[in-house]
């Protein structure tokens, strides 16, 4: 139970979760402003920079019945490199994955889960956007292969981009949560796909002339309870939505990622997962609401509203 904190105008604001963890609004806002300044130095438009700077400048919270605070109003820039938006997107992602996976397991209790990682060689920043488009199409082809599709119930595709600082290149790769029929593991090779076979399929679908690194592994819960497998499944949530740390040569990296990730969907659902997402009327993770993330269970108190403003001079949030 969170102890109700009394707020007065001018107080320095700190948002603490039910477990007592600082949600670090100040630190994330400072990273957001650093990002905006970098875009400014790169001569992005004034409106583009202003959009990022305005993110989370004014926060409105309501007290829930258990004493914790719930965000209910905030402007979000939705830039993929914004520390605030990435954080909210990550939470929303994990909430939706939990709901979708639990419902899928109820409908197909004998289904099994696999983690599949698909890689290609690194690319330069100027080629990142085209490579991400190519990988999306390659993945679509991979899912259409008969041996893949015949035992596939549903999937989650999450695309991650990491950077090799030494070579100044980017490593786009795909993490896939596969939900497959139990027949996948039967049939003396008729249904089961070995790591070598996955590699062959990926090489063919990606149309590359080298042997890529592919990893596939089964997720095995300790028992039949959903919660035992949930934590392993949610590991995928950290991949496509974590903000990259800004460093000494950040300007080029920020520019590369802005152009490389432009209009690129990093998260996608297929099969039963896509069907459940639609039935549950879950909002779009990447471009949707980053305030109401779907975990709002505790009712809100009708009374208290805490309004918080970012103070640029003092570099912190204060109660209005």
Descriptive notes:
The protein is of the alpha+beta class. It has two domains: 1-76 and 291-320, no CATH class; 107-285. Helix content is 36%, strand content 22%. The chain has helices at 25-41, 46-53, 83-107, 128-144, 146-149, 195-206, 226-233, 238-241, 250-260, 272-279, and strands spanning 58-64, 69-73, 112-119, 152-164, 169-180, 214-219, 267-271, 300-311, 316-319. Strands 6-3-5-4-7 form a five-stranded antiparallel β-sheet. Strands 2-1-8-9 form a four-stranded antiparallel β-sheet. A hairpin with a 4-residue loop joins β8 (300-311) and β9. The chain starts with 24 loop residues before the first helix and ends with a strand.
Describe the structure concisely:
The protein is α+β, with helices and mostly antiparallel strands and 320 residues long. The chain is built from ten helices and nine strands.
Keywords for this entry:
single chain; 320 residues; 4-stranded antiparallel β-sheet; 10 helices; 9 strands; 36% helix
> How many β-strands, per DSSP?
9
Strand content: 15-25%
Helix content: 25-40%
**Inertia-based shape:** flat
Please state how the strands of the largest beta sheet are arranged side by side: 6-3-5-4-7
Number of discrete helical segments: 10
C-alpha end-to-end distance: 26 Å
* Spatial extent as radius of gyration: 22 Å
Into how many domains do the coordinates divide?
2
Structural class: alpha+beta
The mean pLDDT is: 88
Oligomer: single chain
Largest sheet: 5 strands, antiparallel
Low-pLDDT ranges: none
- Write the element-wise H/E pattern from the N-terminal end onward: HHEEHEHHEEHEHHHEHEE
């Amino acid at each position: 139970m969170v102890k109700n904190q009394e707020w007065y105008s001018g107080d320095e604001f700190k948002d603490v979760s039910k477990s007592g963890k600082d949600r670090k609004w100040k630190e994330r806002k400072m990273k957001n402003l650093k990002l905006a300044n970098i875009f400014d130095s790169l001569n992005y438009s004034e409106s583009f920079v202003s959009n990022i700077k305005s993110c989370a400048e004014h926060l409105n919270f309501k007290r829930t019945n258990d004493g914790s605070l719930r965000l209910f109003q905030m402007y979000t820039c939705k830039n993929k490199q914004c520390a605030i938006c990435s954080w909210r997107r990550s939470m929303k992602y994990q909430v939706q994955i939990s709901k979708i996976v639990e419902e899928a397991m109820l409908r197909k209790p004998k289904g099994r889960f696999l983690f599949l990682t698909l890689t290609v060689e690194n690319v330069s920043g100027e080629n990142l956007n085209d490579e991400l488009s190519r990988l999306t199409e390659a993945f679509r082809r991979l899912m259409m292969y008969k041996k893949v599709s015949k035992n596939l119930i549903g999937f989650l595709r999450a695309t991650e981009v990491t950077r090799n600082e030494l070579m100044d290149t980017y490593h786009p790769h795909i993490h896939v949560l596969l939900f497959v029929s139990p027949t996948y593991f039967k049939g003396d090779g008729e249904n089961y796909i070995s790591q070598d076979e996955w590699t062959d399929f990926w090489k063919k679908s990606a149309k590359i002339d080298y042997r890529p690194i592919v990893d596939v592994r089964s997720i095995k819960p300790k028992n039949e309870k959903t919660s035992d497998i949930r934590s392993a499944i949610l590991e995928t949530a950290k991949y496509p939505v974590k903000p990259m740390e800004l460093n000494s040569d950040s300007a080029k990296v920020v520019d590369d990622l802005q152009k490389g990730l432009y209009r690129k969907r990093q998260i996608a659902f297929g099969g039963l997962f896509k069907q459940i997402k639609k039935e549950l009327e879950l909002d779009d993770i990447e471009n949707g609401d980053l305030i109401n993330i779907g975990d709002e269970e505790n009712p809100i108190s009708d009374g208290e509203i805490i309004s918080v403003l970012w103070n640029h001079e003092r570099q912190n949030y204060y109660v209005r």
